[in-house]
Amino acid sequence: MHELSVTQEIVNILVEEARKHGVNRVTMVKLKLGTFSTFQPEAVNFYFEILKKDFPELETTELQIELEPGRCMCRECNLEFESSGDMFPVCPRCGSIFVEILSGKDFLIEYMEVEDEDKSTQKCA
Amino acid sequence: MRIKVLKNVLEKNDNQAQINRDLFKKNRVLAVNIMGSPGCGKTTLIEALINVLIPSYRIGVIEGDYAGTVDAERLSRYHIPVVQLDTSSCHLNAHFVGSALDHLPLRDLDFVFIENVGNLICPAEFDIGDLLKLVLYSIPEGDDKPLKYPLMFSQADAVVLTKSDLKPHFDFDVKKVRESIARLNREFEIFEFSKKSHSSIKPIANFLESRFRATVLKSYGDL
């Protein structure tokens, strides 16, 4: 349920960015979601389809949410390693279950693809 | 055309959380975020803490609830500053808490207890600017909760096992709970609390007092 407020925030940021750059239409948005976050991509997409209707800039926008593996460090042997999802990672070197999660909880808007207004005008001409 | 954005989705919330945190520090207030399931005893714990801390400390409370003012009414008999937030949401966020701070006399307080919305998932994702996190969970909920809600337990400064007088009636393994949390969390305290045992609140109050002295008075003394 908490995806609603986070998706509202995504919409706010996108509209703000689109207006800042004078963009009329955002076609695609690439997001990176840390694997240790509790946000569900399906729920974000579901809310986005509803919320975007209020903004002409986002009418045809599609979200691409990429899961980003997290970085972990073993508390026993100090090995740093990648993990893709298990909140209880196990050290691949020494098998320790005491593992520190260093990153992988962030939710980032990486970039947006927009319609190039100038080019389309030129083509039409 | 591609436009780089590179913005954290929770950036606005995190910025406001930092404003709240700075405000607490500036006023030398220990803000305690109290989280746990609905019915685990968050308000009961706050009442017990008020009773034991109030002769020596000045306390304010922010009550976050999905609906209604039941908790604020319940606390009104202590004659302390209480702000009820009607969140209509599954968690408190930094802006809600920031709006409540306008109604609390922070300069005249030592502790602010922030009772989050009853929920073990959503409140863990939203920084509200607290300086200490207490996670409560009651014996009848079962000893597997840290395995099911790891993010919440990974952030706890202390875990309070509430309704501990019910332990004889449930197969609840405290050692298992401690071990599960230790996998996620390098440093945490664990307490047992029962409303029926007046002495069980003392170690929790002592913990808060020591954190108040160590963090608020020492670290922020020069602010």
Write a brief caption for the model.
The complex is a heterodimer of chains A (125) and B (223). Chain A has 125 residues and is α+β, with helices and mostly antiparallel strands. Chain A is 30% helix and 30% strand.
Describe the structure.
The complex is a heterodimer of chains A (about 120) and B (about 220). With about 120 residues, chain A is α+β, with helices and mostly antiparallel strands. Chain A has a domain at about 5-70 and about 105-115: hypothetical protein PF0899 fold, CATH 3.30.2320.50. Helix content of chain A is about 30%, strand content about 30%. Chain A has 3 helices and 6 strands. Chain A has helices at about 5-20, 40-50, 115-125, and strands at about 25-35, 60-70, 70-75, 80-85, 100-105, 105-115. Chain A has a 3-stranded mixed beta sheet, with helices on one face. In chain A, helix 2 (about 40-50) links the parallel strand 1 and strand 2. Chain A starts with a helix and ends with a helix. Chain B is of the alpha/beta class and about 220 residues long. Chain B has one domain (about 10-220): Rossmann fold. Chain B is built from 8 helices and 8 strands. Chain B has helices at about 10-25, 40-55, 70-75, 95-100, 145-150, 150-155, 175-185, 200-220, and strands at about 1-10, 30-35, 60-65, 80-85, 110-115, 130-140, 160, 190-195. In chain B, helix 7 (about 175-185) links the parallel strand 7 and strand 8 (about 190-195). Chain B is globular, with a radius of gyration of 17 Å. Classes of the chains: A alpha+beta (about 120), B alpha/beta (about 220). At the A-B interface, helix 1, strand 5 and strand 6 of A face strand 1, helix 1, helix 6 and helix 7 of B. Strand 6 (about 105-115) of chain A pairs antiparallel with strand 1 of chain B, so a sheet runs across the interface.
